[in-house]
């Protein structure tokens, strides 16, 4: 487990290597979700291969964030099937629950899915270091010394070694978000889910967070990124997924989707987003 | 005109202050019991369970709507009849005041837990913490720090309410005042000393409360 992490995160990147998804990390089938009478997700099918970086784009209210939250069951789905790394987390057919993982089992799988929130959600009563070590110690059972060493390594990797003892309240938005990323990374996740991680930041702080995500992509981390940063999505993603009204309207290689979108709705959205 | 006897006043002060430790002991023990019982009650009340909910409603409403003095007397004179065990006056006092406090604190804690943003629960869940771990490591530590002010306030309330235990013969500040008053037939001096003792303890406590709060505050 540990070696997987260190190679994934800290190894030298080999950018020339083409990404061939040999292994499926996330498999979603016909995901549907309603809030009251409103349909948020209207049947989403999505497969993310190991090492793939998928950017989810689309207008507000298109269901991007909900989809992301459904993957680790933070939001329960009404219909469909969610598989992460070969395990079925949830399977609901016609309102009948075939599988809905709960308790320890669900917790164990969630710990292998890194989730980074728009509003950081760091634990304010703990230092940056303890934010990272708490889950390592209590969930993975890593001894304190080892946990601190691992956390320090990752914190230095994002340029925050000198902020290890600071509390979230004394960190800038960009710093908080980098700690949040490290906290998720420390658990050695199979996949990282990013939910508009730069939307709550001051413009001058966006770059430092995107840079971390960029480096993760280069190191081969499997990622699903909900973002409004079109330029970033194009640069970092191996696939762009455009969503609207709870459906995937178009997906494909960034150059194709961004430069030459097939769907008129994608075109309209990109025109608005770039203006 | 009434002649204020400074000599008696000094004796009264000396005698009364020797009860300060017992008053504090009862107050601290009651607060501890109140937290230990009130915390699980408060946590349980944030979960929507019908049966548990009804039970806690009754518990809280009983302790809230019966005078504290009656509760103390009840625990001292009635509980031995019911259970067949004799509780000492101090034990009965701590039990009554502590459980009474727990009913108040349960509500304080419940509010405090509900006041922790949902994002904290979600972040914990996404990292792989279960419900109990989330409460233990994330929610309750934050809640307790935020609830420190009402907690310390409750402690001061307890110090003052503990004067009621003199009624069942506990030799606290108040009871000692009664003794001096009878002994010297000097109620003015005696109860002035009693007032001074409570005032001093509560004043110091409330002044240091600010300092304690700052010590445990979550840095912002």
Q: Any overview of this molecule?
A:
The complex is a heterodimer of chains A (275) and B (220). Chain A has 275 residues and is an alpha/beta fold. In chain A, 38% of the residues lie in helices and 26% in strands. Chain A has helices at 2-10, 64-71, 103-110, 128-140, 144-157, 173-185, 203-218, 230-236, 254-259, 264-274, and strands at 24-35, 38-49, 53-57, 79-84, 87-93, 96-100, 113-116, 191-195, 223-226, 239-244, 247-252. In chain A, the strands form 2 sheets. Chain A has a 6-stranded mixed sheet, with helices on both faces. In chain A, a hairpin with a 2-residue loop joins strand 1 (24-35) and strand 2 (38-49). The longest helix of chain A has 16 residues, at 203-218. Chain A starts with a helix and ends with a helix. In chain A, 45% of the residues are buried. Residues 1-21 of chain A have low confidence and may be disordered. By secondary structure, chain B is mainly alpha-helical. Chain B has a domain at 21-170: MetI-like fold. Chain B is built from 10 helices and no strands. Chain B has helices spanning 6-17, 20-46, 50-65, 68-83, 89-114, 118-127, 131-146, 148-161, 173-184, 187-216. In chain B, helix 2 (20-46) crosses helix 5 and helix 5 (89-114) runs antiparallel to helix 8 (148-161). The radius of gyration of chain B is 21 Å and the shape is flat.
């Amino acid at each position: 487990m540990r070696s997987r992490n260190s190679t994934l995160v800290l190894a030298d990147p080999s950018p020339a290597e083409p990404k061939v998804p040999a292994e499926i990390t996330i498999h979603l089938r016909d995901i549907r979700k309603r809030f009251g009478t409103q349909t948020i997700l209207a049947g989403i099918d999505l497969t993310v291969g190991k090492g793939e970086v998928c950017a989810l784009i689309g207008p507000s209210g298109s269901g991007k964030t909900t989809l992301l939250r459904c993957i680790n069951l933070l939001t329960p789905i009404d219909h469909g099937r969610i598989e992460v790394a070969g395990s079925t987390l949830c399977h609901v057919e016609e309102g009948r629950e075939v599988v809905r993982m709960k308790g320890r089992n669900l917790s164990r799988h969630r710990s292998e899915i890194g989730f980074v929130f728009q509003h950081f959600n760091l634990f304010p009563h703990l230092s940056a270091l303890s934010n990272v070590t708490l889950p390592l110690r209590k969930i993975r059972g890593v001894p304190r010394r080892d946990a601190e060493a691992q956390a320090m390594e990752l914190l230095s990797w994002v340029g925050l070694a000198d902020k290890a003892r600071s509390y979230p309240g004394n960190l800038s938005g960009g710093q908080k978000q980098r700690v949040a990323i490290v906290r998720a990374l420390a658990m050695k996740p199979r996949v990282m889910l990013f939910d508009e991680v730069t939307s709550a930041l001051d413009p001058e702080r966006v770059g430092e967070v995107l840079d971390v995500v960029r480096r993760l992509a280069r190191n081969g981390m499997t990622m699903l990124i909900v973002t409004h940063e079109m330029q970033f999505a194009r640069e970092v993603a191996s696939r762009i997924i455009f969503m609207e009204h709870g459906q995937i309207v178009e997906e494909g290689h960034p150059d194709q989707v961004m430069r030459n979108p097939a769907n008129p709705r994608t075109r309209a959205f990109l025109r608005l987003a770039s203006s | 005109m009434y002649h204020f006897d400074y000599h008696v006043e000094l004796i009264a002060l000396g005698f009364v202050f020797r009860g300060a430790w017992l008053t504090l002991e009862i107050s601290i023990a009651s607060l501890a019991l109140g937290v230990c019982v009130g915390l699980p009650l408060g946590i349980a009340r944030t979960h929507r369970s019908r049966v548990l909910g009804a039970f806690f409603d009754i518990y809280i409403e009983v302790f809230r709507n019966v005078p504290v003095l009656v509760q103390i007397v009840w625990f001292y004179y009635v509980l031995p009849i019911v259970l067949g065990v004799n509780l000492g006056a101090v034990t009965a006092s701590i039990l009554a005041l502590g459980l009474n406090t727990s009913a108040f604190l349960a509500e304080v804690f419940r509010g405090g837990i509900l006041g922790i943003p949902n994002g904290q629960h979600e972040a914990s869940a996404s990292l792989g913490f279960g419900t109990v771990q989330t409460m233990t490591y994330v929610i309750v530590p934050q809640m307790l720090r935020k609830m420190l002010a009402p907690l310390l306030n409750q402690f001061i309330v307890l110090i003052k309410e503990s004067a009621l235990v003199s009624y069942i013969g506990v030799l606290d500040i108040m009871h000692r005042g009664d003794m001096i008053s009878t002994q010297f037939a000097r109620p003015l001096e005696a109860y002035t000393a009693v007032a001074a003792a409570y005032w001093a303890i509560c004043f110091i406590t409330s002044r240091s409360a600010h300092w304690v709060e700052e010590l445990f505050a979550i840095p912002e």
